[in-house]
C-alpha cells in the first residue's frame, strides 16, 4: 500500500492562519516594516501562497482590519444585556469591549494605532467599525434621556456629541489598560479587569450624564 497522503488544510482555515500571522506581525513590526516573507514564515506557509490567497500586502492589511473590526463589534453587541436599563446595557457593552481588546491586544493595536495612519482605504474600514459602535452608544444615551423624561431637553446633536466623547474615552482607556510599563522596580503594571475599566468609565461619564439628564448644566462661574 502506498503512503497515506496528509489531509489538505481547507482554504478558509489556511486563510485565517495567514490573517493571524499578519495581525501578529503588523502589531509587532508596524505596517511599513512588516514583510510578506515574515508573515509567511509566521503562518508556516510559502510567500507565493500568501499572495495567491490575499493578492497583496494592502489587501492583506485590509482583510486584517475588516476581520478585527467585525470581531470587535460582535464582541460588544454579544455582551449587551437585552432588555436591561440603558445604563446596564452600556456597562455590559463596555465590559465586552474592554474584555475583547484585552484578549486581542495585537488586533486592537492594529485597529487603533496603525490602520488610522496608513492610507484612506484602511481609515474607511476603521471608520465603518466606529460608526456601528457609535450608533449603538448614541441609541443608548437617547434611551437614557427618554427614560429620564428629558429627551426633549437633550438635542440630537448633544446626544451624538456625548456618544463621540464616550467612545473616544473608551478607546483611550483600552490603550491605557493594555499598556505594559516597567519602572525598573516593580515590573510590569498589571492590566485592570475589563469590568473594572468599564466601571471606571461609567463612574466618569455616566454619573455626569445622569446629572445632565436631570437638568443640571455646567456654566463658567458656576
Can you summarize this structure?
With 222 residues, this protein is mainly α. The protein has helices at 11-29, 36-43, 47-54, 57-79, 86-103, 105-114, 120-147, 156-178, 194-213.
Task: Characterize the structure shown.
This protein has 222 residues and is an all-alpha fold. The protein contains nine helices and no strands. The relative contact order is 0.10.
Topology readout:
Blueprint: H1 11-29, H2 36-43, H3 47-54, H4 57-79, H5 86-103, H6 105-114, H7 120-147, H8 156-178, H9 194-213
Helix pairs in contact: 1-2, 1-4, 1-6, 2-3, 4-5, 4-6, 4-7, 5-7, 5-8, 5-9, 7-8, 8-9
The share of residues in extended strands comes to: under 5%
Structural class: mainly alpha
Total DSSP E strands = 0
Residue windows where pLDDT falls under 50 for at least 5 positions: 1-6, 181-187
Mean pLDDT: 83
Helical stretch count?
A: 9
How far apart are the first and last residues' alpha carbons, in Å? 90 Å
In one word, what is the shape? Answer: elongated
Main beta-sheet strand count, sense and barrel state: none
Based on CA atoms alone, the radius of gyration comes out at 21 Å
Q: Work out the helicity level.
A: over 70%
Q: Report the order of strands and helices.
A: HHHHHHHHH
Features:
single chain; 222 residues; mainly alpha; disordered N terminus
Amino acid at each position: 500500500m502506498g503512503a497515506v497522503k496528509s489531509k489538505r488544510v481547507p482554504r478558509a482555515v489556511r486563510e485565517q492562519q495567514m490573517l493571524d500571522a499578519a495581525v501578529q506581525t503588523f502589531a509587532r513590526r508596524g505596517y511599513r516594516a512588516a514583510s510578506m516573507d515574515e508573515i509567511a514564515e509566521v503562518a508556516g506557509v510559502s510567500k507565493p501562497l500568501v499572495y495567491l490567497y490575499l493578492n497583496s500586502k494592502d489587501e492583506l492589511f485590509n482583510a486584517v482590519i475588516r476581520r478585527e473590526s467585525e470581531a470587535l463589534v460582535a464582541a460588544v453587541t454579544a455582551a449587551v444585556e437585552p432588555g436591561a436599563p440603558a445604563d446596564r446595557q452600556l456597562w455590559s457593552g463596555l465590559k465586552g469591549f474592554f474584555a475583547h481588546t484585552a484578549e486581542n491586544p495585537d488586533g486592537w493595536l492594529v485597529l487603533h494605532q496603525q490602520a488610522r495612519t496608513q492610507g484612506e482605504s484602511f481609515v474607511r474600514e476603521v471608520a465603518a467599525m466606529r460608526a456601528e459602535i457609535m450608533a449603538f452608544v448614541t441609541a443608548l444615551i437617547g434611551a437614557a434621556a427618554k427614560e429620564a423624561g428629558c429627551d426633549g431637553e437633550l438635542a440630537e446633536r448633544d446626544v451624538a456629541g456625548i456618544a463621540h466623547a464616550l467612545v473616544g474615552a473608551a478607546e483611550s482607556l483600552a490603550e491605557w489598560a493594555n499598556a505594559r510599563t516597567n519602572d525598573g522596580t516593580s515590573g510590569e503594571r498589571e492590566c485592570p479587569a475589563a469590568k473594572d475599566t468599564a466601571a471606571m468609565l461609567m463612574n466618569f461619564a455616566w454619573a455626569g450624564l445622569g446629572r445632565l439628564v436631570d437638568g443640571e448644566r455646567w456654566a463658567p462661574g458656576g
